[in-house]
Amino acid sequence: MALARLWRSAGPWRCRALLLAGLLLLLLRQAAKQEVGRTSPTETLRGKSSGHPPPNVVFVKTHKTGSSTLQNILFRLGERHNLTVAFPRHTYQFAYPLRFAAAFVEPLPPGAARYNLLLSHLRLAAGEVRRVMPPDSLYLTILRDPVRTFQSVFAYYRSTVPAFRPLATHPRPLAAFLQAPARYYDPADVGNGLARNPMAFDLGLEAGGEEGGSRWDRELERLNQTFHLVLIAEHFDESLVLARELLGLRLEELAYVRLNARRGAVDEASAPGLARRIQAWNWLDVRLYRYFRAVLWRRVERYGYTRMKGELEALHSLLGETRETCLAGEAVGPEETADELRPWQPDSATILGYNLRPSLPPAQYASCYRLVLPELQYHARLYYRQYGREMCSLPCDEWGQARGL
């Protein structure tokens, strides 16, 4: 009715035409506002944010468990928010395989009041970590199926770990080792930390003594009290969704590609009986893994299966878009990878890397570049950004153990 009265009062046809044009423009603007306010489920998830700075995080980076992929996510988080990283004084690890000590950490850079992230390889000594990191820090780690973990550790460190080294050129080295592991394994040699129960070793456990008994129940419960989240590699995406809620991240901050994967890994563990031998030799890792896998699924249940399903769909959509946008193809060997994106290569395995799509716009290139940047290069990048100098390059063995410590 009001529009009709306005129309009759508009007078000559030119005035009415101008009024009509104005009304159409008003309607189009209202429609545009409604369209802007309408978001898809994926866009809604991407927009979620606590509005607060990221929390302080300790990530205990276990060996050959998919930990490099999660470390890359946290490296990008640190760079995006200009967080202060606790770096090792020498090379890329905190004097591993020694137990962590506060003295292994590079001093705070000028102007920094505290560390926000601790992400490099270490052997956990929780009390010493607490001396370095703020009391409100969130503790994360990741575990992987013990059979796969040990197989990967053996392949990667075959020429490095003393217990593995005598079999470095054997045609079936893993089977030969597991036929008589005590012949090669000296528990008194700290260099053999990865030769038995490597995940438990990284988390500071000593696997001596009997397999049974209440001691291990207490040890596992103590770890459960230490860590706010233990991710499981076989359920990596579900773990990431839980980590997203814990850390207050946006969906796009979870984008990843699988880093540090081996090429042509022969599944020697599929030989009859070999998986059982790996489990028997690494009995504490088996117990550790089963305990925290159950913890993870209890958390998923509390989170809600329907809610988890929706977030996984959004995450998988994001990952597909990210790979399509960034990557020139599948992971490739070092001979095909650009120099700055080539992962470090051990003597006994070939580690795959990625090439980026050509002609990416500058902002997109920078984002994709960080996504595929290998661990050592990203470590050095952030160190230089934080301290304005190259990393210390003292003579250290492959473990990253500086002899002067």
The end-to-end span amounts to 86 Å
Estimated structural class:
mainly alpha
Using only C-alpha atoms, the radius of gyration works out to 26 Å
The spatial strand order of the largest sheet comes to 2-3-1-4-5
* SSE pattern, N- to C-terminal: HHHEHEEHEHHHHHEHHHHHH
Biggest sheet character:
5 strands, parallel
What's the overall geometry?
globular
The average pLDDT value, as a whole number, equals 85
Q: In percent, how much strand structure appears in the residues?
A: under 5%
**Number of helices, counting only DSSP H or I runs of 4 residues or more:** 16
Low-confidence stretches: 1-50, 395-405
The beta-strand count equals 5
Helix content: 40-55%
Describe what this molecule looks like in 3D.
The protein is mainly α and 405 residues long. The chain has 16 helices and five strands. It has a five-stranded parallel beta sheet with strand order 2-3-1-4-5. α4 (67-80) runs parallel beside α16. The protein starts with a helix and ends in an 18-residue tail after the last helix.
Give the gist of this structure.
With 405 residues, the chain is mainly alpha-helical. It has helices at 2-8, 13-37, 41-47, 67-80, 126-132, 146-156, 173-179, 181-184, 198-202, 214-226, 236-247, 274-281, 283-303, 305-326, 362-372, 375-387; strands at 57-60, 85-86, 117-118, 138-143, 229-232.
Key features of this structure:
5-stranded parallel beta sheet, mainly alpha, 5 strands, disordered N terminus, 405 residues
